[in-house]
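User: I'm curious whether this sequence folds into something compact or stays loose and floppy. Could you predict its structure so I can see for myself?
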Amino acid sequence: MAVRLLTLLIAFLSLGQTTLNAYVAQTNPGGNLYLVNRTYLLDKEYVPPDLVKPGVLCKYGDITMRQEAAAALKNMFDSAQAEQGYILQAVSGYRAYNTQSAIYKRKIDSTGSQRKAQLLVAPPGASEHQLGLAMDIGRKSNTNLTKGFGASEEGLWVAENAHRFGFIIRYKEGWTDITGYAYEPWHVRFVGKEHAARIFQLDIPLEDYVNQLQTAMKAGLLGEGREL
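Assistant: Here's the prediction. I'll summarize afterward.
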């Protein structure tokens, strides 16, 4: 992991300052790289400005996500069917703060423990679903959100191809100490094709990717003789 992060940092440092500035801008609210977890929380009033219904098979009629991510999701679903005959289904997209709060409380009740619950469900304000950039996906024949999706033909295809459309598998197995959440092969997050391809190749969590990007930005500023 350390070697991969160093490789990423060097790659970022090789970018021109204008490009690096543009990348860092994407880590701000509204950007495709905006980081949300139990440390970096969203305000309860935050609602993405461009939510739309993705033109894909949906388990429920009220599923939405941000416009660019919705278009990318449709491209991914269409390609899965055209290339392999796999029919994917959108299960859960944008969630308001209050909706996430209710889901989180139900999980605490069902597990009997807040510690167990927060490994499985994000507390309100800590969910990527509130960004409108995340989607839980399943198969047409089985929309249950379980680890079994990751071992299915559809799940394996998503894991190997999501980056082609700008998505990453956000919570991979073995990353819990960094992301804070258990393995979720069904949860994809839109970050854009360029960043998704790089994250896929390096096989690192979004937390590490954003941290290296911000480190490179600081190093670039210090290189110009500025103090932070």
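Summary: Residues 224-228 have pLDDT under 50 and may be disordered. The beta strands are 51-52, 65-66, 88-92, 134-139, 167-171, 184-190.
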